[in-house]
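Re: [ENG-882] Designed sequences occasionally contain unexpected residues at chain ends

Forwarding the minimal case from QA. Structure tokens:
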């Protein structure tokens, strides 16, 4: 699925559903193959400081 398609699908999702979706996607990721150990966790932790850049990149309001 393309990023643009994902954006279109989740556009109308309520915030609580998006939170659940993020958790479920994280659990489904093959941690050892996707990224070096801890990188995904660090990206999540840095989200607050990167929020404005993320919103601009995703084209949505968090």
């Amino acid at each position: 699925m393309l990023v643009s398609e994902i954006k279109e699908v989740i556009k109308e999702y309520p915030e609580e559903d998006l939170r659940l979706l993020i958790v479920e996607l994280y659990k489904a990721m093959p941690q050892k193959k996707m990224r070096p150990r801890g990188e995904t966790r660090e990206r999540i932790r840095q989200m607050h400081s990167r929020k404005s850049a993320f919103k601009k990149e995703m084209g949505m309001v968090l």
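QA comment: On inspection the terminal residues look reasonable. Helices lie at 3-10, 15-28, 31-34, 39-45, 51-58. Proposing we downgrade this to a documentation issue.
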